[in-house]
Amino acid sequence: MNTPPLILVAEDEDLMRAIVSRLLEESGYRVAAAASAEEALDHFAAEDVAVTLTDIRMSGMDGLALLDRVKDIDPEALVVVMTAYSSVDSAVAALRKGAYDYITKPFVNEDLLQSVKNALRQRELFRENRALRRELDRRYSFSEIIGTSESLQQVFRLVEKVAPTNTNILIYGESGTGKELIARAIHHNSPRSLRPFVAVNCGALPETLLESELFGHTKGAFTGATQARPGLFRSAEGGTVFLDEIGEISQALQVRLLRAVQEHEVTPVGSSAPARFDARIICATNRDLEREVSEGRFREDLFYRLNVIELHLPPLRERREDIPLLARHFVKRIAREQGQDEKSVEPAAMTALINYNWPGNVRELQNAIERAFTLSGERVDLDSLPPRVRDAAGQAPVVLDPDGLRPTLAEIERRHILDTLASVNQDKARAANILGIDLSTLYRKLKRYDAV
Question: Most exposed of 44, 146, 202, 312 (fewest Cβ within 10 Å)?
Fold first, then answer.
């Protein structure tokens, strides 16, 4: 059962304090009543106060001073002030200091209750925003881009260097390698993180629609343009524009895009007046743009404007050592999303996952794991994998050492066990459960590896 929110009432007049407290209690709230601002501060510091309701004029510390002290403790605190008609100027001063609302006395009961309800709704929005911010911090932190391979670590090191800058970035990578995820991580770890991240797939829209999407249009600029739109560059003001599949845009649009990149201004469709914008530009492509330039399909001047910093995301087949970590990550996420227990991945299934070539890269792996999780029993087994992946189980292992030699089966097992331990912060009981072996067996193997 949910606990009713606590309303703090600071009022030095006994009768008024009793009236307000009773009104709130009869409306289902818990109430902490204080006869002075000093007493109210003690309540606020000691309890989880949802809304503070205070008179402005009180003996000793007044309501404005109480407001300042409460805001010092919690800048997001919601304070509603009560004032007489003759003291409206004080109420306005309170609003400037950060009060949420004010009520004039004598008040209508419904007005006071509505003000409290509105403040509680605002408090819930604050909480949702904090939760969203925590989720964004988690989702777009580098820890959410899974992999320990050297090729991916090189990407991380470069991203950490370029994220705080305003430099244009061009991300190369096959479909499904996580180009947008990297772009979002760059944005989220930059000074622009509190401003919009606006993404568009340039290959998914026809030229005329892409033009108005990027640069905006005036009302009546074309059939169906019933209202003006600013376009993505201006919508991302202060933030980041991500242009995916940039190699797909036409020569005509390349000319307009060059001006936008050079001058940071766009001219909406149907207008002759340019409009400036402030947004970082990150592009991505699965094409070889240098070849596109040499063959005359992509403007050289635009290429060099966009390609100030280039990032190359390796395909999954070139970082197979990351596949066990990715597979367990997706199993854990899917279990959480579906409200089920985590499952271990049987060795035969893991071998198939490692050996398969993954033309669709990480996106294809995620889909395969979701399918397998749904169809499997207590463990993700070989039969639950898609047929094309399952067929890879019988292939020779393709994980290679840095010197190009194939590792032994014992070496693959050692790496798999140590990777599993690393993924669960060295929790041996949990690692044994994921690996599908007894804890005593795990200890014996770790002792053999000198890793106990």
Answer: 312
